[in-house]
Write a structure and sequence with these properties.
Structural class: mainly alpha
Radius of gyration: 19 Å
Helix content: 40-55%
Strand content: under 5%
Length: 242
């Protein structure tokens, strides 16, 4: 629905937009087409549709961002909506100027060569197994010994440049169990995280200050480059229904 809502009403089930599988215990880890989110269309506002979707999934095992608390899930979906709105506006301009039959779109669609396919696989592992690339042995040793859920709040930073070569050379063909050791040993990015349980009283006492910091970090991510790149990718990659 987001593709139709923000980009093109002719987007359908076979949309050709690869995404991490929201069912985190299922295979494949990455889907070839963005699935329907299942919004309740009786709601008229995007905010209520998103809120309803998150609340319905709170107790569903292995659904979406399992390591996030409810407020983190909500802030994530609203933050992504900010990106989609801005990218959707840019998409309309890009669609008028950029021919889908072009060298640029050919490059965009070659997700095996440009790294997107690998990036999605790595992101799937990081969502399924929070902290798996953190380098923290308390967490990684637990994953090597068997599945264990952790609550992780990732920091907001770019991946280190030295990870790119390792990622591009990593073979993601195999089950999660077969690949966990390789991910731990070869794809460490030292992503920031909070391993400790959340203290709701402490957070409530400093919620305004913490949220102001979060807003600042989120706004840093809403760069013109991100918005433009997103719009170009959707334009080049999206398959439309007749």
């Amino acid at each position: 629905e987001d593709l139709k809502m923000y980009f093109n009403k002719r987007a359908g089930a076979n949309n050709n937009i690869p995404v991490v599988n929201p069912m985190l215990r299922d295979q494949p880890r990455v889907l070839d087409n963005a699935p329907s989110s299942g919004y309740d269309e009786e709601f008229k506002t995007d905010g209520m549709k998103h809120f309803d979707l998150i609340m319905k999934g709170v107790n569903m095992e292995g659904w979406r961002l399992t390591a996030f608390e409810v407020l983190e899930r909500l802030s994530h979906v609203y933050h992504m909506s900010e990106i989609w709105v801005a990218a959707g506006q840019k998409y309309k301009k890009v669609a008028k100027r950029l021919n889908k039959v072009s060298e640029l779109c050919d490059c965009v669609r070659d997700i095996d060569s440009n790294g997107l396919a690998k990036y999605l696989q790595l992101t799937a592992f990081q969502i399924r197994y929070p902290g798996i690339t953190s380098g923290n042995k308390n967490i990684t040793d637990a994953y090597l010994g068997g599945f264990l859920d952790y609550h992780i709040s990732y920091g907001l930073q770019e991946r280190p440049k030295n990870l790119v070569d390792e990622l591009m050379n990593f073979d993601f063909s195999g089950t999660d169990e077969e690949l966990i050791r390789g991910v731990v040993e070869n794809l460490m990015d030292e992503a920031g995280f909070d391993e400790e349980p959340h203290d709701p009283w402490e957070e409530a006492a400093h919620s305004r200050e913490h949220w102001e910091w979060c807003v600042g970090e989120l706004k840093k991510l809403l760069t013109p480059e991100l918005i433009y790149d997103t719009a170009v990718f959707i334009h080049c990659q999206l398959d439309l229904e007749d």
